[in-house]
From TrEMBL:
GO terms for molecular function: hydrolase activity, hydrolyzing O-glycosyl compounds. Residues 10-219 form the GH16 domain. It holds the Pfam family Glyco_hydro_16. It comes from Lojkania enalia. Residues 1-23 form the signal peptide. Keywords: Hydrolase, Signal. This is Family 16 glycoside hydrolase. It comes from the Eukaryota. GO terms for biological process: carbohydrate metabolic process. Transmembrane segments: none annotated. Gene3D superfamilies: 2.60.120.200. The keyword Signal applies.
């Protein structure tokens, strides 16, 4: 029984800015399994199959359903060993899937990055789809370019510390439809990075990531 799905079609892309924009992950990345595996790894990009939620990642829950669309599903399970995060055990109630980019992404001084994709994401209670960037070395930085936490809303978050963050929650209408997400990261002073969030072409929030410039991210 499949309880939830996250669909990502071929609009997913990452491009660097300025001077001449370079596409880092092309729109063809989801055209085939071979293309997917050229740019992404299964499960979390830092290694491992669990994080801070009640799901264990599993390759079989990541599929190219049709050329151009990546489907990630979640399935209720019983009897899984618990995950451990921050010294605490977390019960595993789902098998699900994740992919992480093979490369790291860094906002250079005077430059920037744009991440974009089109998503059909569930808002079912108990699910937690996310499109996010997190620090390769330590934590933060973290940018949740789109996060759905089973509340009927979509969240846009930027963490400067675990207690100092900027966020905006927006009602996520028509979750059965695809919605376009874009996140623009631009260096502002050689240290800090401006983060702009968009949904369906409309600006949603503007944050500043303190000391984000020059620090590598996982996607």
């Amino acid at each position: 029984m499949i309880s939830a799905a996250l669909l990502l079609p071929s609009l997913l892309s990452a491009a660097s800015l300025p001077k001449r924009a370079t596409t880092l992950i092309p729109k063809t990345a989801f055209d085939s399994t071979a293309n997917l595996e050229q740019y992404f790894v299964y499960n979390y990009p830092w290694g491992g199959t669990t994080h801070n939620g009640g799901a264990r990642m599993d390759k079989d829950h990541v599929k190219i359903s049709t050329p151009g669309t990546l489907t990630i599903t979640a399935q209720p399970v019983r009897g899984q060993p618990p995950a451990t995060h921050a010294g605490k055990q977390i019960p595993i109630n789902y098998l699900s899937g994740a992919v992480g980019a093979r490369q790291h992404f860094t906002v250079p001084s005077g430059g920037g990055l744009i991440f974009s994709g089109s998503f059909q994401a569930t808002t079912t209670r108990g699910t937690w789809p996310a499109f996010w960037l997190t620090a390769v070395n330590g934590w933060p930085p973290e940018i949740d370019m789109a996060e759905w936490k089973g509340s009927g809303k979509i969240s846009f978050n930027t963490f400067n510390t675990s207690s100092v963050l900027s966020w905006k929650d927006v009602t996520y209408s028509n979750p059965s439809q695809f919605h376009d997400i874009k996140c623009e990261l631009r260096d502002v002073n050689g240290r800090d990075t401006q983060v702009k969030f968009y949904m369906d072409g409309a600006p949603q929030a503007t944050h500043v990531g303190k000391d984000y410039t020059g620090k590598p991210f996982y996607l």
